[in-house]
Structure formats: C-alpha cells, structure tokens
Design a protein that fits this description.
This protein has 193 residues and is of the alpha+beta class. The chain has 3 helices and 8 strands, in the order E-E-E-E-E-E-E-E-H-H-H. The protein has a 5-stranded mixed beta sheet with strand order 3-4-5-6-7, with no helix packed on it. Strands 2-1-8 form a 3-stranded antiparallel beta sheet, with no helix packed on it. A hairpin with a 4-residue loop joins strand 6 and strand 7. Helix 1 packs across helix 3 and helix 2 packs across helix 3. The longest helix is centred in the middle third of the chain and has 45 residues. The model has no long low-confidence stretch (mean pLDDT 82).
Length: 193
Amino acid sequence: LLPIKIEHGVIVEPVNTVKSINPGFQKGAFPLILDTTVDSLDASGLKDGVYITRKALYVVGKRQTKVYNYEENMTLDRDDYTDLFRKIINWSVGICSICVFIFLYVLYLALTSFYALFALVFAKIFKAPIDYCGGMRLSALAYILTSAVLNLLRFSGLEISLWTMFFSVLILQVLALKSLTFVQETPKRNQKI
C-alpha cells in the first residue's frame, strides 16, 4: 500500500489504485482496503474494516463507523517501521502498567476503607476494642483471604458472584471480631511470681 502522499487533504499518490490487505493470521482482524478511485464511500453497506479513499479514512465496525478526513500534507514512505512500533508498544505498556497500578491501588484502598466501616459497626456490636486503623487491617486481611479462596474456586470452574465476595468478607470480619472478644473475655489465671 505504501508509499502514500497526501497534499491539501487529498491522496495524490497512488492515483486510481485499488489494493486490499486482509491479515488472515488473526481471527477478527480488519481488512485494509485502499481505493483512490473514489473520493468518498457509502458507509452503510460496508463490511467491517479500514477503508482509505482519496479524501477520507473510514473505520467500519459492527456498531459504528468513523470517518477521518485528511487535514495536513504528509507522506508515508515505504520503509521499515518495526523499530517505531516497538518503541510505541514499549512506552504504551509502561504507561498502561503504571496507570493500572495506580487504579488498582486506589480501588483496593477504597474497598478496604468501605469494609473498615463495617468492621467498626461489628466492633461496636461485639464490644471489641478496635479503632479505624485496626478495622482497615482487618478488612485488608479478610479481603485478601476471601479473594484468594474465591479465585481458586473460580479457577476450578465455579461461578462466584460479587455478593458472595461481599458477604464472605463480612463473615470473616465477624468471626475475627468474635474471636477477639472471646479472647478478651476469658478470665486470667492467677500467676505466681
């Protein structure tokens, strides 16, 4: 398909050309069709794919069609773009990893804070001596244990809902707080010095 030269929003090279690339190595891959014999296409009858005409680029999907007009002069030469794409992929993987780490940190902090509020309510009910920091620790421990067990069950093929996860964490908190109050209520033995 290359080289492609665009001047004043119109492809001037190649002229009157129809080429098609269908990457068959991957299921669901979009075909790429270059048709410089027409200025525009009727997108309603097009199959999924990427279509390049003289004046626009059409990206046709199952749900929507996007049309991009060429706005500047540019030339795409026939060249090896492997290093460029490798750099783009490496940077995007790094940036996405950092964003996912930050998102998961905030998500788990919010979940732990949410469950800590329940731990404080249960602590008042069972008269357990626990403050908010202790509730956060208890919630984190209960969430980690529940996640580990339920993920093992998911890998074995069982369907586990979010409600199961929610109530499992709460049950673990109740059991921990009950055992904490039980330890506190047991009478101390007389110790000889």
